[in-house]
Amino acid sequence: MATNLILGAVLLACLVAVAWPFLFYPLILRMLPTRPEQPAAGPTPSASLLFCAYNEAAAMPEKLANLAMLKARYPSLEILAFDDGSSDETAALIEAKGDLVTLLRGPGRSGKAHGMKQLAARATGEVLIFTDANVLLDEDAIGRLLARYADPQVGGVLGSLHYVGEGESATASVGSLYWRIEERLKDEESRTGNVQGADGSIFSIRRALYPDFPDSVLDDLTVSMAVVFAGRRLVKAKDAIARERLVTARKDEYRRKVRIAARSWHTHRYLSPQLRKMRALDRFKYTSRKIVRWFGGIFILVGAVAAGTLAMRISPMLYMAGGLAVVAVVWLGLRSRGGPFAALVDVLIAYAATLQGVLRAMTGRTVTTWNPAKSR
């Protein structure tokens, strides 16, 4: 009986840990008081828009048209791009728009972090706005980001990423759902103080806060967290919208998640001394949204072992029935292009990829370069 209670407790703890970032953490955030911003009178700061590209020729015509629209809306906007040794026509397409975009060419494959540092060093805007080569910004996005800098305590502002193509596959549907949850978490984190890090689709910081960092880290997380470390606010403007097409193939999404997780954990280790100095609330947020999620795969594995052992102790028939049910669900999910079984399999794959990336980083391996997903 005592062993069964222990196994049940382990299973319950694992279920809580897996659900924590998506259920319990959001509920806690909603109970926290709002920390209002304090805007002051003053001119709108100048801005530089920066992005890195590698083999994005297919996306570049639409990207350049989007940049031309933004430039027409905000004539003083400075736009700079870094080409990371593309082997297609990416650099030539950008260079042909020299009146719109200032192009910097890398010496070869050196990675996004290296490229962004080169762009930041060349930029002249008071605010640096970061985006990706395959991301399109809504026409009001720049103005809505810059408006939040009216509060002198605000050091960085994120926008909202809306994904396109969520119905094209189960992988895309799961990715879209995950990101909608992520965006809502950032909204609540912003309302209560600081968002815990940005992704590269759309975020900005005051140029004076841009940190120095090695090329091996995830620049989005490193740069955005520098705002929090400096004692300024990192907030989200949910009406500043960026749009990106989802990855639809499981293989592409798996590789992407492994790469991001490996760099995230490597970056976490680099930032650890500063993370430990954050306020208690920010440390709680960071742990809940990032660390617990990174190890979700371990919680699933331990929970599955506990559930299987408990079922075997209760009844071998229950154990066999449970095992067959799991095999059937996975088999149906792998063969399906949509539906709940396919979605469940994609969730498990996402956890496995994240755990693989974290474990890879723990052994000292990380990733500095990237390749665009072919199934976007």
Automatic annotation (TrEMBL):
UniProt KW Ribosomal protein keyword: no
Entry keyword set: Glycosyltransferase, Kinase, Membrane, Transferase, Transmembrane, Transmembrane helix
Record-annotated Glycosyltransferase 2-like domain positions: 48-210
GO terms assigned for molecular function: glycosyltransferase activity; kinase activity
Transmembrane segments: 6-28, 291-311, 317-334, 341-359
A Pfam family assignment: Glycos_transf_2
Family: Belongs to the glycosyltransferase 2 family.
PANTHER family to which the protein is assigned, alphabetical: POLY-BETA-1,6-N-ACETYL-D-GLUCOSAMINE SYNTHASE
Name of the molecule in the record: Histidine kinase
Species lineage: Bacteria, Pseudomonadati, Pseudomonadota, Alphaproteobacteria, Sphingomonadales
